[in-house]
DNA sequence: CTGAAAGCGCTTACAG
DNA sequence: CTGAAAGCGCTTACAG
């Protein structure tokens, strides 16, 4: 592999000059610049990233954290981010956290160790006090998930509004016994805008209250991620004496699991049990029972996230928080 | 950020000794090893990867190339690979090529520039003569796609056998006018085992021949990747005077597009047109028209690929080629 | 078992 | 505009 000295030797110049043309420094005569360039070409020279990093220069790569790449919501989000970053000449490093705090730290350490210029967190596994320590090493932004009172830019959807309206929509459709599922380990009730999950739940609950309804704890399901989880939720619902007539599934994946198991057990969706998904995955419209769902603006969020990070890189100011709208897509399941 | 010298100073030892405990060298007394370790802990010290790479040491990361992460076949394949690699302490770098030769070179250059220890190619965009140049920089293996006469390990499925049997299956089901779609830009006919696409097509064609049937060029469709492409294919089929009665769609994505457009145009699947997918994506069973499809052994291939790469890393010998079986899953669409 | 020193391939003041 | 030299944080012979 050719090094910078090889290029210098071939061009009959110093490594300093070669380094200057690599870095587009203006202080090089056109003539020498050309001879360096042709020498680089002739040798097929590419600067060794490790050596540049060691000197603390930019890496032109960004890390993006997601729980799991097989989840279409996240693969599309990452895709939107990567496409935008690509255009600007940045590489993207996808880090799957598998919902483990420790893996999220791996991504953050990439920043500390100067392997990336910034990290885009699409999910949140650690407490903010831990994450905020890493802000001194580079740029961090939050996408999709969020917290109140953090000092990094946020790109997110209006979860409260979306869930509030979706719950109202279910009432309008004639449902009144509404179950609720979430991926979280537990449901915490907090003030508005506190975080992603609390907002979803607050929107749900506020609509309930307006309809003079309280919470039925039997109708709350946590830890729901996969279609398999959805099937189990359906079974738990069937075991209940007092059954809900509709469920907000938390994701399309879970919604699919619920409708599948319902079909298996000959329970009619949406007649006997309505199912409301969240995400609007590409396939959701083409399922045996097309999902009524809350569409997340994946592309918009991904693009805005990438743009925000790019602005940060070029030292421009960015909005503290950018909020995209959720939208109810009415199909067959509710 | 703490450096190796900081640790050495705090421990009252030389950097050499610290480096030795970082690299698990046996030539360090237990006592000093402990004091180094506690110094590292106290400072929260992590070796800077760039510095280690510069000295040519292992990176413990692997690159995996795929055309596009939003394609579930590839996201599941990557996932299987990453999980296995994780267990062995390796990180995974996902490189989307967007089917561009140039982006594939990016991944290969990672190897040349010592940013990864190996690359797992799940698709093939460059000619082999270009790729083989990179073998001197580290380990390369081929997964999913393949070529004949390459000198790197291959993990693949038996495309010929799968497509041969699938075509026979279609005949058994009573179809006889079989159309064929592929993601390739063109269909090339080559000897058996030449490559992925040629094998698929050869399997298809051999079955045709055995049924005394020739090729109808109006029934061959290229460049089919997305559901959108599937819709267009359906439209092209409808414009034909002599229509096929079934189509091998090349992927479940394309199959979904075809069935969707068929529904829209009130054409009955599988009555008026049968549709055979390829992949067996998780959702394929739960579509409005559940797909009959050729299942690809994604997990098996991913795991074998990762294992093969790990064996290569530890200098063990590996089989030149490992072949997994394709399987026909009969559902509603054909 | 331990340490001083050279060197990996770059960039960046510092002189000129 | 150009070059000699120091130094980024490590590892690895080389001595001892």
Describe the structure.
The structure is a homodimer of 334-residue chains. In chain A, 42% of the residues lie in helices and 15% in strands. Chain A is of the alpha/beta class and 334 residues long. Chain A folds into three domains: 4-47, 434 Repressor (Amino-terminal Domain) (Orthogonal Bundle); 61-157 and 299-326, Rossmann fold, CATH 3.40.50; 159-296, Response regulator (Rossmann fold, 3-Layer(aba) Sandwich), CATH 3.40.50. The model of chain A has no long low-confidence stretch (mean pLDDT 94). At the A-B interface, helix 4, helix 5, strand 2, helix 6 and helix 11 of A face helix 4, helix 5, strand 2, helix 6 and helix 11 of B. Chain A binds a DNA duplex (16 and 16 nucleotides) through helix 2 and helix 4.
Nutshell version of this structure?
The structure is a homodimer of 334-residue chains. With 334 residues, chain A is an alpha/beta fold. Chain A has helices at residues 4-11, 15-22, 30-43, 49-54, 72-87, 101-112, 128-132, 159-172, 196-210, 227-238, 252-264, 298-313; strands spanning 61-66, 91-96, 118-121, 139-143, 154-157, 178-181, 220-221, 246-248, 274-279, 292-295, 321-324, 327-329.
Q: What does the largest sheet of chain A look like?
A: 6 strands, parallel
**What string, H for helix and E for strand, traces the elements of chain A in order?**
HHHHEHEHEHEEHEHEHEHEEHEE
Kindly report the CATH topology of the largest domain in chain A: Rossmann fold
SS strand fraction of chain A: 15-25%
Overall 3D geometry of chain A?
elongated
Pfam families (chains A, B): LacI (PF00356), Peripla_BP_1 (PF00532)
Domain HTH lacI-type (chains A, B): 2-56
Protein name (chains A, B): DegA family transcriptional regulator
GO molecular function (chains A, B): DNA-binding transcription factor activity; transcription cis-regulatory region binding
């Amino acid at each position: 592999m050719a090094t910078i000295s090889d290029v210098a030797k071939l061009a009959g110049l110093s490594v300093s000059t070669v380094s200057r043309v690599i870095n587009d420094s203006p202080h090089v005569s056109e003539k020498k610049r050309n001879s360096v360039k042709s020498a680089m070409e002739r040798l097929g020279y590419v600067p060794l990233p490790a050596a540049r990093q060691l000197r603390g220069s930019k890496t032109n790569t960004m890390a993006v954290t997601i729980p799991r790449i097989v989840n279409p919501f996240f693969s599309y989000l990452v895709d939107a981010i990567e496409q935008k970053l690509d255009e600007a000449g940045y590489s993207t490093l996808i880090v799957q956290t598998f919902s483990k705090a420790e893996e999220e730290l791996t991504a953050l350490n990439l920043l500390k160790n100067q392997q990336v210029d910034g990290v885009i967190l699409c999910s949140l596994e650690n407490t903010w006090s831990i994450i905020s320590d890493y802000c001194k090493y580079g740029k961090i932004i939050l996408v999709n998930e969020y917290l109140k009172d953090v000092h990094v830019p946020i790109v997110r959807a209006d979860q409260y509004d979306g869930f509030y309206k979706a719950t109202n929509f279910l009432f309008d459709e004639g449902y009144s016994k509404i179950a609720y599922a979430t991926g979280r380990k537990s449901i915490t009730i907090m003030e508005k805008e506190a975080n992603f999950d609390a907002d979803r739940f607050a929107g749900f609950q506020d609509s309930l209250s307006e309809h003079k309804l309280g919470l039925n704890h039997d109708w709350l399901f946590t830890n729901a991620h996969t279609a398999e989880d959805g099937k189990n939720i359906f079974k738990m619902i069937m075991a209940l004496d007092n059954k809900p007539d509709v469920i907000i599934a938390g994701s399309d994946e879970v919604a699919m699991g619920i409708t599948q198991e319902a079909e298996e057990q000959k329970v009619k969706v949406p007649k006997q049990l309505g199912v409301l998904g969240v995400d609007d995955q590409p396939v959701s419209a083409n399922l045996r029972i097309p999902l009524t769902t809350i569409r997340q603006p994946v592309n918009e969020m991904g693009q805005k996230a990438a743009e925000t990070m790019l602005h940060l890189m070029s030292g421009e100011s960015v909005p503290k928080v950018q909020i995209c709208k959720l939208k109810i897509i009415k199909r067959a399941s509710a």
